[in-house]
Every structure is written in C-alpha cells, then in structure tokens.
Design goal:
By secondary structure, the protein is an alpha+beta fold. It has helices spanning about 1-15, 25-30, 65-80, 95-100, 110-125, 170-175, 185-190, 195-205, 220-225, 235-255, 280-295, and strands at about 20-25, 40-45, 50-55, 85-90, 125-130, 140-145, 145-150, 165, 180-185, 215, 260, 265-270. The chain has a four-stranded antiparallel β-sheet with strand order 2-3-5-6. The protein has a three-stranded antiparallel β-sheet with strand order 4-8-7. A three-stranded antiparallel β-sheet has the order 10-12-11. A hairpin with a 2-residue loop joins strand 2 (about 40-45) and strand 3. The chain starts with a helix and ends with a helix.
C-alpha cells in the first residue's frame, strides 16, 4: 500500500502542478510532537533555540503519532481559508476522518477509537512554545491550547453531528500570521509515518531559505526528531537507521530536494520548495519565502 501510494503520487507530480495546498505551523517544524505514547502527562522537546512542552491530555494520554499532525494541518488550513476561529469538522467523526484521508475501521484497535483518543488528546492539551530571538536575545513564550471549545455528541461514535471547534485566539493568531504551505497529497502518502511527516514539513521549510550547503549532524537531528531513542550507542544507531529510511521515503516524492547523506549527518543543498512558485501560487510563495527568511534571522 505504501509503495502504491508513492507511485500514484510521483505519477501525479509528473503530470500536474501542486494545487491542493495545506498548511502547518512553525511549532510543527522546529520541535516535533511525540512519535509514540508518552509515559506520564508531560512532554518536552528542545531543539536549538526552540522548545515545545505539552501537558495534560485526554484520559492522561498526550497526542502522539500521525493523527495529531494531520488534524493540526487540516485545522490550520481551514482557519486560513475561512479566516474564522470557528471550524466545522463535518457531520460525524467518521466524516471528519474521511476528509483527512483516513480509513474508518471499528473495534477496540480500529482507527476510529485511536483517532478519537488522539483528537481529544490534542484538544485537551496545554501547549507552551518557546524560542529565543537571535537578534534581541529575548526569550519569547507562547502559551495556548488548540481550541477554546469542542462540541459534539459522545452518545454514539457516529453521533458527531455538525461538530465544530472554536480555536484558541492565541493559536489562531499564530497560525494565521505564520502559515507554512505543504502538499495535501504528500501528507496522505506520508501519513503512515509521523517521522516522515516531520521530515517532510521540516525539509520543505528549510529549502525555502538556505542559500548554501548546510550540514546537520545526526546528533542534532536526534535532538529535534528523536523522541523515544536512548542516548546510547545503540539508540543513536537505531535513530540514524530509522531517520535515513524515512528521509529516503520523503525524497522519493520530494525529488527536487538536494540532500546528501553521510556517516555522521546529512547536508541540504539549495533546492526549490515543494510548493513551487507557479501561476496562482506566486504571491503565496513570495510571502512564504519572506516569512522564512525573517524567522530564520530570529
């Protein structure tokens, strides 16, 4: 299935330009959400000048894996499209899942139960995003949660009538001001791996502003993407192996990205962003490049 989706996507790219644009936010680029279940009710990742902390969660489960990433991208895209904090999700939870390209299966281990848990975990978490302004040296702290209100019936798993959420104002202003465009079809292909999604979001963002070859060590990449891997020789080896595997998966569809893989790290060479400047996308692309250059100087 993974190879079939990838072949379909690559074939599409050779015949059509990318038109189904979605968005992610900067916290999804600089500090990764958990890839696997977190023990306890708190999570923190620090990468360079950036830090992400998440607390609480639904029934003690913090959001992790692919579902929260896909949900966030869809919500951010709807906020940008509608310019409204009130976001309608669909007629039912299953309807919402289908909009995201997720197959609906029942039972205790089915996708429906896992999706509902991750959705509510994301909606009930408190999030702190921190970064240091490189010029002023000021530490900037943004505290928020995704939604002020979530409204749907819980009596029946299909009883999600005209569900809606009202976005937290701080979160809404953040994503409206700093949207980062990605390809919706690429998200659908990469959804099987939360690490692949993170690499894709990060890579297309990085390629929007680098001007020369940039080398990044696996130790640095592990700090950003390697939650769950021990700081032992074996842990570092396993992270390197998994990262390279998922990077190659991403590069199979983002094949205009110039990336070299070495024993101790990778290098990024100046390449077009995955959302290329074409026709109706030119104004969006110009704004995106200017924003990224500004953010990179912070």
């Amino acid at each position: 299935m993974k190879k079939d989706k990838l072949l379909e996507y690559v074939t599409h790219c050779y015949t059509d330009e990318i038109t189904d644009i979605h968005f992610v936010c900067r916290m999804m680029i600089t500090s990764a959400l958990p890839h696997s279940k977190v023990d306890g009710n708190s999570y923190k990742r620090t990468s360079g000048n950036y830090a992400l902390a998440i607390t609480n969660g639904y029934d003690g489960v913090l959001p992790y894996g692919s579902y929260p990433r896909v949900i966030l991208s869809w919500i951010i895209t709807e906020a940008i499209r509608t310019k409204s904090r009130e976001i309608y999700l669909g007629e039912s939870l299953s309807d919402f899942m289908r909009q995201l390209g997720i197959s609906v299966t029942g039972g205790k281990t089915g996708s429906f139960s896992r999706f509902k848990q991750q959705f509510l975990g994301l909606m009930t978490s408190n999030i702190t995003y921190t970064f240091t302004d490189a010029r002023s040296k000021k530490i900037i702290v943004i505290n928020f949660h995704v939604a002020d209100a979530v409204k749907f019936s819980s009596d029946n798993h299909e009883d999600f009538f005209k569900a809606k959420i009202i976005l937290d104002e701080i979160f809404f202003n953040e994503v409206i001001k700093y949207p980062i465009p990605v390809d919706k079809k690429a998200i659908n292909v990469l959804m099987c791996s939360s690490l692949a999604l993170d690499i894709y979001f990060w890579l297309t963002y990085k390629m929007s502003y680098i001007k020369e070859e940039t080398k990044i060590s696996f130790d640095s990449l592990k700090t950003q993407f390697g939650f769950g891997y021990n700081d032992t020789k074996q842990g570092k080896y396993e992270f390197r192996r998994k990262f390279i595997c998922q990077l190659k998966f991403v590069l199979a569809l983002y094949n205009i990205a110039r990336v070299n893989i070495y024993e101790d790290g990778i290098s990024l060479c100046p390449s077009p962003t995955h959302i290329r400047q074409k026709n109706n996308n030119s104004i969006l692309q110009d704004r995106f490049i200017r924003y990224n250059r500004k953010l990179n100087n912070q």
